[in-house]
Amino acid sequence: MISVIVPIYNVENYLRPCVDSILNSTYRDIELILVDDGSTDASPSICDQYAGIDSRVRVIHKVNQGVSEARNTGLDAAEGDFIMFVDGDDVIHPNMIQVLYQAINDGDYDFSMVKGKKAHVSQFESELNDESIGLSAAHKQLSQRDLMTYIMGPSWVDFQYIVVWNKLFRRNLIKGLEFKNTGSEDAEWSTRMCLLMNNAVIVDAEMYYWVQREGSFTHMGMRPVAIDRINSYLICLNDIPKENKFYRALSLEKLYKVILHTRYNADGTKYVDDVKSLATRVYRQTVNEYLMSRMNWKNKWGLLFLFYFPSIHRRFMKRKQSK
Questions:
Q1: What is the pLDDT of residues 174-200, one digit of tens each?
Q2: Which of 79, 91, 141, 182 is deepest in the core (most CB within 10 A)?
Q3: What confidence category does residue 228 fall into, taking pLDDT thresholds of 50, 70 and 90?
Q4: Is residue 121's pLDDT more than 80?
Q5: In Å, how far are 121, 135, 209, 210 from 128, measured between CA atoms?
Q6: How many domains does the chain have?
Q7: How far is CA 32 from its chain centroid?
């Protein structure tokens, strides 16, 4: 059985399409765990309605503690041999669970993943009716080193390796691996998960629809949780054993890129001093290792130069964005 964990907080306008897409999956042997994280809209009653009409649905109502604790609550309750996560305002293709399940078992992998797709609701409705999506897609093996490189990468493609919502995990891989309340909880959790895995498989098909909506965390401006991304990637660095110089170099490079990105976004906001103070503290903690790391020397000195001269970094970013 596969346990599908859905953390939910005030997504009443998106919840039904999300739950329907999971329950309409071609793979039927699932338990759907809806974790209501103290919602104040109609989400709790919608969850209860589904539990009343489908025996595969279990609902947990809890006080609001954030997505990390909601996922942890779902993990504690899960009974399946496989675990997957879906966000409460997103939608999956009917074939997604089946494709993930077949892929993970074909090579006895630790986890399988498909690709996600940013989309508004009207952009993927026709794809949900395409019964062929994913069934003949190419598979590619992913090593631990590959995954860590992607987790610490900068692009949207790399981001898909960080998130937990497009993957199917073996329960014995992530047993006891709790999420932490950080600004980038997926990145921190995935870093620890990566250190436990041997290999995985990627299915070259877009089957997870990341619904774009106003008011979601992703589309909010500078705020404390965005600033905390710096701490998140510092935690990622601390998660990696000291003797693993290659992974720590990747993590240090990502950490300094996050510092620069956050500092730039905080410019002109009320958070500018907070970010500057945090960046200085993290720099003092890490600069010695940073200078001695195995990072590409151009990246190493380029990032350090931009760290020391924020005005040049601002001009660089504005020129880049204007193109």
A1: 989 999 988 889 999 999 999 999 999
A2: 91
A3: confident
A4: no
A5: 11, 13, 10, 13
A6: 2
A7: 20
* Nearest in space to 233 (alpha carbons), one of 220, 248, 216, 217: 248
- Tell me: do 209 and 225 sit in the same domain: no
Whether 208 and 128 map to the same domain: the answer is yes
Length of the chain: 323
DSSP state of 182: S
The residues with which 5 forms a beta bridge, in sequence order, are: 33, 85
Cα distance between residue 37 and residue 67, in whole Å: 8
Domain limits at 94?
2-217
Both 298 and 313 in one domain: the answer is: yes
The answer to whether residues 138 and 246 belong to one domain is no
Q: For residue 172, with 0-12 CB atoms within 10 Å meaning exposed, 13-18 middle and 19 or more buried, which class applies?
A: exposed
Q: What is the pLDDT of residues 125-161, one digit of tens each?
A: 788 888 999 999 999 999 999 999 999 987 667 889 9
Residues 100 and 11 in one domain: yes
Q: Which of 173, 195, 217 is the last residue of a domain?
A: 217
Q: What is the pTM of this model?
A: 0.92
Same domain for 88 and 234, yes or no, is no
Indicate left, alpha or beta for 94 from its phi (over 0: left) and psi (-120 to 50: alpha). Answer: alpha
Nearest to 255 by CA among 310, 187, 309: 187
| Structure token pair of residue 33 | 């765990």
Q: Which residues contact 292 (CB under 8 A, 6 or more apart)?
A: none
Residue with tokens 């077949």: 102
Question: What CATH code is carried by the domain that includes residue 57?
Answer: 3.90.550.10
**Domain closes at, from 199, 217, 235:** 217
User: Please, which residues have CB within 8 angstroms of residue 227's CB and are 6 or more apart in sequence?
Assistant: 183, 262, 266, 271, 274, 275, 278
Same domain, 60 and 199: yes
